[in-house]
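Weekly structure sync, notes
Attendees: PL (lead), two postdocs, one rotation student
Agenda item 3: pending single-chain targets
PL asked that the sequence for the first pending target be pasted directly into the notes so everyone works from the same version. It is reproduced below exactly as submitted, 213 residues in total.
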Amino acid sequence: MSQIEPESEETPIPAETSPWRFLPTGLSLLRIALIPVIFWLSLSDRHLWALVVYCLGAWTDQLDGWFANRFNWHSYFGALLDPIADRIYILTLIPLLWHYGSISGIYTTLVITRFSIQLTAYPVLLCWLKRRPHLRPELLSRAAMALAFLILGMGFAEQLAIEMIPESTAEEVIFDHTMEALTLIGCILEVWVLLRFLPRYWDVIRGKEDTFD
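Predicted structure, written out during the meeting:
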């Protein structure tokens, strides 16, 4: 008769009992909590620290997904909170950078319009239709989100560069042209994703769809 060997000390802790299983959700909440800190630093002309904290917040978007997938620390609440936190993070910070003149008004308007519409899909499904939302972001939606994080990061970097780089230098010209090119690509992506999302959103309102980006 074979004997049952004692469990090795290296046996991984099951995801549902791990004390770290709420870490991805905590990182998403941290992303939202950093928003007023970034506002305060930026409005206080502490642009270096505003950029650092912004990058930290953007990094948590990568970390929470990595931890969830690597250690199977998944939860339905965490899966819903992550994209909500992303949209709130960008939606609240982009008007600040528009106020500074770092991001164009057209791109700002497109991002605010798309994210605001997408966020309203949650209460429609949860409170009105009493259905659980299912998220399946497509490649273009992921690309638009990643580009939005990058453009905002460059916007905060521009505020720092204004203090450090003299005007009309080659570095400033290269930076401005790069920002213009990325913003143009961002506008195209935002329009494309919005046009693809609106018919699905109409199906969500009518109760025929519960999956969206």
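Discussion points:
- Residues 1-14 have pLDDT under 50 and may be disordered.
- Helices lie at 23-43, 47-71, 76-100, 105-128, 139-164, 170-205.
Action: rotation student to compare against the earlier draft before next sync.
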